[in-house]
Amino acid sequence: MEHYLDNAATTRVCPEAAEAAVKAMTETYGNPGSTHTLGREARALMDSSRKKTAHALGCSSSELIFTSCGSESDNWAIISGAESMRRKGMHIISSETEHDAVRKSLDELEKRGYEVTRLKPDAGGAISTESVRSALRPDTVLVSLMMVNNETGSVTDIASVAEAIKESGSSALLHTDAVQAFMKLPFKASTLGADMISISGHKIHAPKGIGALYIRKGLRIKPCIVGGGQEEGRRAGTEAVAQMAAFAAACEAAAADKGAVSRMERFRSEIIENLTASVPGLSVNGGGAPHILSISIPGMRSEVLMNFLESRHVYVSKSSACKRGGRSHVLEAMGIDPKRIDGSIRIGLSRYTTAEDISAFCTGISDAWSTLAHS
User: 14, 69, 322, 362: which is the annotated catalytic residue?
Assistant: First the structure.
């Protein structure tokens, strides 16, 4: 039996999303840009999917643009957002713990002459509102901070950051990578205060290859893909209707499972309680979100732990799946001892995680400690 606990990397597609995608691919397969019956049916499905996804995010349909993934949404928001404000200044605020989609977008902007202030996280891995407030300058044009860290689950209070920007009188745009927060933490785009929000389907049991970017009504940024007039001229390319339908179905399924978040919170607490008692010296790296847990086990290396667990069909990771090799920049930024980093693993929970999965993981870690740490 498999025990999949790498849901921060990706989730298995839920039946509702799979069914919606297959139906769209085999029945509503017209090009939504075509004016004949099949084209109109595809457009109607696309419009319905946008409305459902926008409802889940708490915004209007006109503010939601479908993309291929969270990374595309991040790239688009950061690069086009900064360029749209260039005449007002060239200073950007972000953090040292962002996803590579954000980090490398910032690297690109630095090559174009922008100055980037990368804030350090607090002891728990979050970015404090006060640090943002202190870093704001008259020429700050963009603030980009992730809501839930993809490696530690640390939560940054984006609503508080938005309020601080507003109180300062700054005209800076606020973008948040909410890929790990969407459908896990309670927030609405309409009240959060962010100008742009990135989300992704494959973190909530939709297929890979579909994401979205919320762009606040009235904010105009250049498209990152030009060509046809799809997405109201904001993103060119024939629309991926099947993936859109699947994303919407996954949103509805997640919303319908009212107890999912509390189950994940309970399982996360059980892991910490169980392993703290059975593995001396085990530590938790940051945290706060219900579905992500980063732990360090002294005297053991991540790869050894992962291989031991995989031999028992338990699957976890050591950091972001987008970061292959190298030490975690997130844990380094938090000031965690290199030996602890080298023994860190990430557990990702989902609404499909079971008590059996948690038991298999905890037993595996305890056995690894007993048999490998002293060998």
Answer: 322
